Amino acid sequence: DAGVIQSPRHEVTEMGQEVTLRCKPISGHDYLFWYRQTMMRGLELLIYFNNNVPIDDSGMPEDRFSAKMPNASFSTLKIQPSEPRDSAVYFCASSWARRGTGPYNEQFFGPGTRLTVL
Amino acid sequence: LAKTTQPISMDSYEGQEVNITCSHNNIATNDYITWYQQFPSQGPRFIIQGYKTKVTNEVASLFIPADRKSSTLSLPRVSLSDTAVYYCLVGDRLTGSARQLTFGSGTQLTVLP
Lengths: 118, 113
Description:
The complex is a heterodimer of chains A (118) and B (113).
Chain A: E1 5-7, E2 10-13, E3 19-24, E4 31-38, E5 42-50, E6 53-56, E7 65-71, E8 74-79, E9 88-95, E10 107-109, E11 113-117
Parallel strand pairs in A: 2-11
Antiparallel strand pairs in A: 1-3, 3-8, 4-5, 4-9, 5-6, 7-8, 9-10, 9-11
Chain B: E1 9-13, E2 18-23, E3 31-38, E4 45-50, E5 53-56, E6 61-64, E7 70-75, E8 84-92, E9 107-112
Parallel strand pairs in B: 1-9
Antiparallel strand pairs in B: 2-7, 3-4, 3-8, 5-6, 6-7, 8-9
């Protein structure tokens, strides 16, 4: 397996523009996580899905952020409109929770998308 | 949620054994301890997970005392390529919410030649 795939790897945009980040989890994994990492706040969990259903989005900073997972092999994180303070590295991760276990098993992270909002 | 405390940074030399300790005084009965490693410009990578006593894999060992209020990640004979940030996480692997996945600031390990 190629691991978790994220695109684009780098994104530079101007304030007010819409940004869409994409993630393809590892095949067979049933949990998908979106994180954001900045120097000031470290690595923060934004939202996670189980079997394509959003379970907890309490980490999403505000209504400008939305995430979807239309099928088991694809997820998007959208920021609209973007602001300079959204500049960060966004990671997608997936994991396989064996029967009877929660989402706290080994997570496999993608390479991240470095977002710069000017 | 069990909170973890780690040193902000550590320095070591090539070939030495490095021990990074994590404190988690309010760890719950069902909580597991997990360590991740993150290199610059990469996502975190799972190193090891344990519940009690000692766990060892090809990369590291994890020592957990009987009271489980702390844990120590041991890296044998480190090399320059082990320079990274190391995160300690504590959470319920069986039923816990992923909201427990708080990475915190981690420990910046710098291996010197």
